[in-house]
Every structure is written in C-alpha cells, then in structure tokens.
Amino acid sequence: DLDPGLPAVLADASRMTQVLGNVLQNARSALADRPEGGRILVRTRGMAPEERAIFLEVLDDGPGFPPELLKRIFDPYVTTKDHGTGLGLAIVRKIVEEHEGRICADNPSGGGARVRIILPLASEPAGTPMETPGNAQH
After folding, report:
1. CA 109 to chain centre
2. Residue 13: pLDDT band by 50, 70, 90 thresholds?
C-alpha cells in the first residue's frame, strides 16, 4: 500500500534494501509455521507537514512480538527464533538511525506485528536531482 505522491527522502538505496529485506524476512519467518499462511502489508505514508518525514511500515498477521521482548526487540542478541544471532533488527535500527530516522515495533490491537520506520524528508525540493555516490533518491 504505497503512497505514490510522497516527497523524497535522501537515503542509501542498498542500506534501505537491507533494512526492508531484514524486516520482511522476519515477518515471513513469523508466518512460516502457519499452515494457512499469512499476510504481510508494506505501507508508506507522509506524516504531518511539520514533521517533515515519511513513514514506512511492515505489518503481518502472525503471532506478534512476545510482550516480554518488545521493549528490547532492537537490542543486539535479542531474538524470538531458535536459530540466528539476534543481530538483524539491531543492525536495522543502526542503519535507520544513521539516516537520522527512527524505528519502533509494536503489536497492533487487531493482532500481528508492526515495524514502523520514520525517515526525514530530503532537504532539497522534490524533483531536484539528489543522487550522490552511495546515495539514491527514494
């Protein structure tokens, strides 16, 4: 559910691909044990003009985050899986923060899990070429 009219953010395309890939992989893993499958929704929206930011969120209809881990879910070595290092979401948080963004996770009242990434708008007006080495317009 992508908003086509969003203003530009300045972000490193490969790093944001890593962020989204990791969050989507976690959502897929949360749904893997469900025989009926599940649903993952990726949504983008603008925020209030004074916020000068957009948000991207990934929602799934899986079991949600364990409540006892929710406050620490972005800390290193915290995991809900039997395998893995628990570094994926810690790395995701670091990348988002390097882009001067914020990230949070919760369990929506309707069930499932949600990860919301808030990224600041680019300084340049929309439509201005902003690509520099290592960065790409999104």
Report:
1. 19
2. very high
CA torsion, ordered 97, 91, 81, 102, to nearest 10 deg: 10
Whole-angstrom distance, CA of residue 83 vs CA of residue 131: 38
The two structure tokens encoding residue 76:
């290193």
SS (H, E, C) the chain: CCCCCCCCCEECHHHHHHHHHHHHHHHHHHHCCCCCCCCEEEEEEECCHHHCEEEEEEEECCCCCCCCCHHHCCCCCCCCCCCCCCCHHHHHHHHHHHCCCEEEEECCCCCCEEEEEEEECCCCCCCCCCCCCCCEEC
pLDDT (tens digit, 9 = 90+) per residue, 73-116? 999 998 877 777 889 999 999 999 999 999 999 999 999 999 99
